């Protein structure tokens, strides 16, 4: 789309030949257009060198890494793994101006002299044309960086790549190029989807890129196939919310999509569904070279839905996004607060699709993630010759992959990962290792929108995950936690269900006591419930008391409470767990009775002692008796303030009152 000027520019660059800089907003296919032009000129993949720069770019990586064979003699680079290798005729540098000056300045020198001094050896630069691509405006960078300004002067031709407009007609033309053989129904879909996208662009604060628009077409059309009838209805358009970049919208996205549809009032209205009923044909769906996953596509929707809904609550959206990711297949990013089972849900879905544990590659990233670890570690057998990796131990041979905490990794690891996700090939030394992964699921507790603002490496990587979803519950009320506990213990008896209800009430009440934004996660809730239930069993009790619920204080995440957790829990139980307070009172009354018997035994023992010893024991027993009477007053006070309407609990309260009164009478008589 709108490639006439770019084609002319590239033609001039190849004819001269000279270097060219393409810049502009992401998602417009700058690198793809360059590669397509080079293929059109007859260049093979082995003659085109593509490398991502960025914050993590180093001089070492720029020149191909150390030459291991000469490392004990001098510092030399293995330039056969860099853009200087003689087989490369054209070089494409992506995100060039995101790199630090330490990498840009030596690159400027080589582009000027066309020679790199590798120790005492002169290495000639064979490539005739260097095409640099960046999402940044180089004019802004050149003002603040002499390195950027000097490097820009080595690119004779420069062009901003963006569409002249982002209206419905432009997206409709794009879809016609992507699906040239579309049926009449497919063309109707293109027209309506173009209108929806243009409507989302109206406020100008967000513009859907061509790459995002193509993925929107993918998910909307696939929604019809996932549904099983190949019919486009209003619900299909709501799948746009999973497309990368749509996270910039908030809760009004569904309404804004619906507004552009015929009827335009309610996604669920019968009239709207009648107005949007578009049948699609086989030519309206893409056919990916990667092929489907192990499970046939027609079976994926049902298997993912039934598997996740049987174990997790509030799983509707993650069912949909994983269905799209495995159906297409493509990469997906799941993000949101910890403890919501993102990786667990993905593993559960993949097992349901027929993958064994050893067929699923799972790797945690993080601040300590290195490029070395990403590609499987060095091949020790060749370490004295060259630096190659044991890629059989990396994610490259696996069909399905889960990468955890991906946004915590450094740029040094994210940049090469982005390259491989783009090209689907990893250059291991001079050998190309194909990436077999069809669907990569990245999980993170961080908000990618914040990271993308601060890190160009992250922003570039996020674009390689066409589907994205924030995973969190819509609410964290008592009913939500009860539903969670019910899923976890579907065969629970009456007593366990009562425990679940009370514990859910306590947790929901704890949420209200914290600053906005904090919620007891599903993982913390389940861990706390398990501890409470175990506490009852460990102490041989038949009923739960406050002490059992207080075990939640030891669960990860609860240590940040600054208030008295016991007081908060007792307050919560007054509203939704009076039976626990009654059990607690009965338990404490029993303990006090035992203490009274111990005190009486001390008085009896004192009678057999001499006067001085008897006085000491009696003083100790009297102090204990005073504490005992104070504890009895506390029990009476608690019973007095228990407001109970349930008849069964009222009877229980009366029994407890009788027990406490009898014990108090005994204590007073003993004193």
Automatic annotation (TrEMBL):
The cross-references to PANTHER family, in alphabetical order and at most eight, read:
ATPASE RAVA (PTHR32204:SF0)
- Species annotation: Novipirellula herctigrandis
What are the top taxonomic ranks of the organism? Bacteria, Pseudomonadati, Planctomycetota, Planctomycetia, Pirellulales
Q: Signal peptide location in the record? A: none
| InterPro entries named among the record's database cross-references | MoxR (IPR045427), P-loop_NTPase (IPR027417), RavA_ATPases (IPR050513)
Q: Which Pfam families match?
A: bpMoxR
Q: Where is the MoxR domain?
A: 4-161, 304-472
Its recorded name reads AAA domain (Dynein-related subfamily)
Q: Which superkingdom does the taxonomy of this entry point to?
A: Bacteria
């Amino acid at each position: 789309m709108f490639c006439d000027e770019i084609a002319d520019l590239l033609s001039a660059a190849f004819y001269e030949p000279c270097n060219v800089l393409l810049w502009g907003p992401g998602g417009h296919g700058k690198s793809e257009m360059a590669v397509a032009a080079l293929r059109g000129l007859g260049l093979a993949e082995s003659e085109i060198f593509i490398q991502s720069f960025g914050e993590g770019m180093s001089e070492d990586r720029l020149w191909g890494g150390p030459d291991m064979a000469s490392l004990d003699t001098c510092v030399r680079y293995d330039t056969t793994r860099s853009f200087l290798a003689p087989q490369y005729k054209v070089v494409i540098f992506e995100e060039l101006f995101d790199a630090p000056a330490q990498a840009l300045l030596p690159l400027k020198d080589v582009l000027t002299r066309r020679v790199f001094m590798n120790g005492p050896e002169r290495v000639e630069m064979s490539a005739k044309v260097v095409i640099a691509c960046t999402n940044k405006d180089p004019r802004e960078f050149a003002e603040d960086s002499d390195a950027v300004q000097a490097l820009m002067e080595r690119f004779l031709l420069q062009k901003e790549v963006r569409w002249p407009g982002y209206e419905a007609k432009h997206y409709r033309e794009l879809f016609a190029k992507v699906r040239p053989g579309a049926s009449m129904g497919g063309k109707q879909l293109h027209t309506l989807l173009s209108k929806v996208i243009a409507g989302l662009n109206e406020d100008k604060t967000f513009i859907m890129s061509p790459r995002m628009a193509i993925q929107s077409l993918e998910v909307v059309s696939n929604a019809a196939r996932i549904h099983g009838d190949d019919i486009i209805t209003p619900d299909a358009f709501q799948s746009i919310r999973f497309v990368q970049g749509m996270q910039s919208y908030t809760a009004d996205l569904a309404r804004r999509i619906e507004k552009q549809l015929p009827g335009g009032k309610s996604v669920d209205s019968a009239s709207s569904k009648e107005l949007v009923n578009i049948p699609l044909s086989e030519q309206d769906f893409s056919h990916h070279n990667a092929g489907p996953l192990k499970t046939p596509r027609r079976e994926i929707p049902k298997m993912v839905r039934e598997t996740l809904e049987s174990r997790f609550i509030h799983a509707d959206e993650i069912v949909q996004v994983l269905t799209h990711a495995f159906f297409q297949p493509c990469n997906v990013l799941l993000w949101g607060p910890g403890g919501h089972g993102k990786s667990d849900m993905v593993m559960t879905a993949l097992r349901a699709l027929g993958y064994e544990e050893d067929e699923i590659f799972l790797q945690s990233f993080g601040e300590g993630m290195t490029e070395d670890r990403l590609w499987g570690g060095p091949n020790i057998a060749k370490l004295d010759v060259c630096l190659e990796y044991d890629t059989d131990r990396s994610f490259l041979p696996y069909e399905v992959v889960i990468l955890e905490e991906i946004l915590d990794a450094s740029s040094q690891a994210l940049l090469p990962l982005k390259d491989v996700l783009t090209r689907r090939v990893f250059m291991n030394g001079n050998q190309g290792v194909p990436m077999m992964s069809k669907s990569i699921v990245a999980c993170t507790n961080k908000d990618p929108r914040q990271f993308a603002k601060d890190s160009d490496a992250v922003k570039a990587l996020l674009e390689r995950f066409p589907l994205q979803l924030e995973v969190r519950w819509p609410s964290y009320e008592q009913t939500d936690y009860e539903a969670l506990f019910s899923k976890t213990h579907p065969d629970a008896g009456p007593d366990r269900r009562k425990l679940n209800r009370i514990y859910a009430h306590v947790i929901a009440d704890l949420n209200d006591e914290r600053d906005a934004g904090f919620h007891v996660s599903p993982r913390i809730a389940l861990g706390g419930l398990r501890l409470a239930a175990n506490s009852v069993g460990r102490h041989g009790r038949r009923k739960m008391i406050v002490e059992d619920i207080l075990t939640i204080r030891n669960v990860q995440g609860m240590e940040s409470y600054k208030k008295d957790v016991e007081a908060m829990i007792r307050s919560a139980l007054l509203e939704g767990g009076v039976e626990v307070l009654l059990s607690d009172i009965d338990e404490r009354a029993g303990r006090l009775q035992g203490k009274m018997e111990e005190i009486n035994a001390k008085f009896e023992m004192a009678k057999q002692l001499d006067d001085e010893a008897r006085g000491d024991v009696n003083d100790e027993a009297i102090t204990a008796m005073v504490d005992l009477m104070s504890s009895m007053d506390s029990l009476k006070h608690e019973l007095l303030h228990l407001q109970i309407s349930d008849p069964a609990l009222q009877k229980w309260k009366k029994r407890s009152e009788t027990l406490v009164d009898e014990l108090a009478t005994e204590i007073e008589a003993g004193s």
